[in-house]
Every structure is written in C-alpha cells, then in structure tokens.
Amino acid sequence: MTTTLFDPIKLGDYHLNNRVFMAPMTRARSGPTGVPTDTVATYYAQRASAGLIITEATAVDPRGDGWPGAPGIYTDAQQSGWKLVADAVHAKGGHIFMQLWHMGRAVLTESIGGQRALAPSPIAAEGALPNSQGVPTAFETPEEMSVAQIKDAVRAFATAARRAVDAGLDGIELHAANNFLIDAFLRDGTNQRRDEYGGSIENRSRFLLEVVDAVVAEIGAGKVGVRFSPTNAVFGISDTNPEATFTYAARQLSKRKLAYLHVLEPALDSGSSMSVGLPQVAPALRAAYDGLLILNGSLNKSDGQDAISNGRAEAVAYGIPFIANPDLVERYQSDLALSEPNPDTFYSGGSKGYVDYPNAVLEPAWDKITV
Ligand SMILES: Cc1cc2nc3c(=O)[nH]c(=O)nc-3n(C[C@H](O)[C@H](O)[C@H](O)COP(=O)(O)O)c2cc1C
User: Fold this and answer.
1) Can you give the pLDDT at residue 276?
2) CB of residue 19 inside a 6 A radius of ligand 1
3) Which of 5, 26, 43, 183 has the most ligand 1 atoms within 8 A of CB, as the residue to mutate?
4) Which residues share a beta bridge with 172?
5) CB 131 within 8 A of CB 187
6) Are 204 and 246 in contact (CB under 8 A)?
7) pLDDT score of 52
C-alpha cells in the first residue's frame, strides 16, 4: 500500500498524526522585545492539525537578532511567551519544533546597538532589511568572527535549545539555510576563512556540527532537526559545489541519528524566486542522508504525495499554503479549495492576515447553540 501524506509517522522522539508539516515562516508579530503573545499562540494553535509545526525563525542571541518583530528565545520573557504557544498547540493535539537562527551577516548595525554583524568572513550580504523607520537599508560588511565568538555562538544555540524544550516545545530545528550564520559557514561564497572553520568542506561544516553536537548534548538527538537550502541564492549566498558541500554535511548528520533533515529546494520549473536554476541537490541528499527527510519548496498536494510515493521524502513541509489555510491538512484530505494569502500582511504585524483566515468548514460556535 502506498504511504500517503495523511499517514502517521515516527519522527525522533514523537509519533505524529500525518506528514503534512508546516514550514517555518517569519511573521513578525512578537513586538520589539521578541516575546510571543497570546495572538501568536492562537496562530499556531489554529494550525495544530499539521503533523509537525516548525515555528518561525527564533533568535538565539541578541547580536544575531535583527528581524523587526521576530521572536527570540534568549530572555525569560521570551521563554514565557513560547510556553503559551507550546501549551496552545499541545491542547489541540499538535507537535511543534522551534526553528533556531542566528542571522549572522544579515543584521543591520542599528538593530544590534551599533555593533557590526557577525559572519565567518567580512563579506556583506546583498539586499536590504527595513530599519526601525521601515526604510529598506543595505547591509554593512560584517565582522569576521574570532574562534572565541564562534564558541560563544555554539553555546548560544545549546542554551536556546534548552530554553525551548523547557518552555514545552517538542524540539528544535537548526536554521542552516537561507544565508544565515550556519549556512554562511557552510557555503564557500561566504566562508573564506583560513583557519579550521574555513577552506575544506570538512572545515566549513565544523561550525554546523559543533552546534549540532552541543544541542544534542543538551536536549537529545530525537528532538533535533536541521534545515538546508543547498541551491538558493538568498541575500547573495553561493557555493561552488553545493552537492559536494551538502552531501558531506548530510552524511555527518546521518551519524548523529537526528529527528530529521529538512531540505528547501523548489523544483527548477516552479517559478519560485528561491530557485536560481542550479541542478537540484535534494536527490543526492536523499541518498546521502540515512534518516527522515522533509522536502519543501513550492509543492502542492500532488507534488508532496509524489515525493512520498517515490521515496524522495518521508514528509513534506508547506509554507505559504498554511498562511491562508489553517486547516490545510483537512483541505488536502477532503480535496477542498484553498484560500489565497495576502502577501502584504506576511510581515506587517497585527492580527490582520494572521489569525483571521477561516477554516473551510467552520467550527460550530458551541457557546451560541441552545438545545
Ligand atoms: C512569510 C515567509 C516567511 C518565511 N520565514 C522563514 C523562516 O523564518 N525560516 C525559514 O527557514 N524559511 C522561511 N521561509 C521560507 C519557507 O519556510 C518556505 O521554505 C518557502 O515559503 C517555500 O515553501 P512554500 O512554497 O511551501 O511556501 C519563509 C517564507 C515566507 C513566505
């Protein structure tokens, strides 16, 4: 019998209800102090029928925290906010992993108190982020991290993972994608170091593996996943041989028996801005990684089902479809029409375009029913 998107799956320490996962998506609703609110808890609870929710990227450290309104997990207040989220998702029977990021070079100086952003090498990210006045502002050249700063960052990830699990989250996903700090170490366009953290693929993978080992020591391998985006060019990142770089890293992760590897790689013909036309690496990662693989990137229901049927993945993560369809699992299962999201409210703050997308089949308002 063919495995379907709606079959249960064991992932690390957990048994999940289905293979339709919610991809991590920054929604910028946690205010200037990065503390998730009741509204954030409602947003995730509305989507709790996903087999697994992977949260928006969450900062492990103030110097790697530069997305206005994105949450953190390095203060007690942030941790308390996340407890609201975890409790709300669990009350609806869901599972939730927190995506952990250090933004590395993609942070504006003004967001981190006038300090320079940190990166493996002093190579500025391309593009811009809004400053505190909402004006798109170009990135400056980051500071090359010392070995002591690298060790501090490793510790920040481990402490954040501990805080996440203590707040009730089921596990964490390391954001090793989209040019952020771990990815910037992995790819040679952003890592031109000459020490043990740069040069060879083994050396470029060292930071990732030190973070993985520190996090696993803190919370256990069955609560840890990793996300790669081997061929995208977000913020101008690149690698001269993504297949060699990422298959090496995937083989090292296999040995660690993590909960999963999550690969973001839209199909070449998907028209996604995340695809830059490089040959896909996901098939090679499938072969190199001995464990549960999640695929993501501009997939629809039938693409996701094909990936599972053909053994290209065990589970599929959907991003944008979950924004406007909190009940995406039920809609896919019953072949109901999907709602279209409004991109203007992806990062706008406020509850509009956040918690106001209805389910296809409205839940009865039990409090208003009299018999
Ligand atoms: C609003 C928005 C925010 C995103 N934030 C994150 C993020 O915090 N971390 C991450 O790894 N990817 C992030 N992504 C990428 C998504 O996880 C996903 O890879 C991408 O949307 C492609 O999948 P989809 O076609 O199913 O949406 C974001 C995407 C969107 C649209």
Assistant:
1) 60
2) no
3) 26
4) 98, 224
5) no
6) no
7) 99
Entry field: residues in the chain: 371
Q: Distance (Å, rounded) from C-alpha 267 to C-alpha 275?
A: 7
**Residue 34's Cα: distance from chain center in Å?**
17
Domains of the chain, each with CATH number or no CATH? 9-368 (3.20.20.70)
DSSP structure class, residue 81: H
CB 320 within 8 A of CB 353: no
Ligand 1 pocket check for 265: Cβ under 6 Å: no
> From the CA of 29, how far away is ligand 1's center (Å)?
15
The angle that helices 147-166 and 201-219 make with each other, rounded to 10 degrees, is: 30
Buried-state track 280-316, b at ≥16 Cβ within 10 A, e below 16: bbbebbbebbebbbbbbbbbebeebbebbeeebbbbb
The secondary structure of 200-259, three-state, reads CHHHHHHHHHHHHHHHHHHHCHHHEEEEECCCCCHHHCCCCCHHHHHHHHHHHHHCCCCC
> What does the DSSP 8-state code read for residue 353?
T
Give the Å distance between the CA of 28 and the centre of ligand 1: 13
Strands 136-138 and 128-130: antiparallel
Q: What span, in angstroms and rounded, lies between the C-alpha atoms of 225 and 253?
A: 9
DSSP assignment of 285-319 equals HHHH--S-EEEESS--HHHHHHHHHTTS-SEEEES
pLDDT tens-digit readout, 22-74: 999 999 999 999 999 999 999 999 999 999 999 999 999 999 999 999 999 99
Degrees (nearest 5) of the Cα angle 156, 158, 162?
Answer: 115
> Roughly what angle, to the nearest 10 degrees, separates helices 201-219 and 242-254?
30
Confidence at residue 190, expressed as pLDDT on a 0 to 100 scale: 98
Q: How far is the C-alpha of 344 from the C-alpha of 102, rounded, in Å?
A: 25
273 pLDDT above the threshold of 70: no
For residue 205, what are the CA distances in angstroms to 150, 185, 198, 209, 231?
13, 7, 8, 6, 16
Residue 277 confidence (pLDDT) above 70: no
How far out from the chain centre does Cα 308 lie? Answer: 21
Question: What pLDDT is recorded for position 269?
Answer: 61
Q: Give the atom of ligand 1 at the shortest distance from the alpha carbon of 56.
A: 8
Distance of CA 367 from the midpoint of ligand 1 (Å): 36
Q: What is the dihedral of CA 105, 106, 110, 113, to 10 degrees?
A: -50
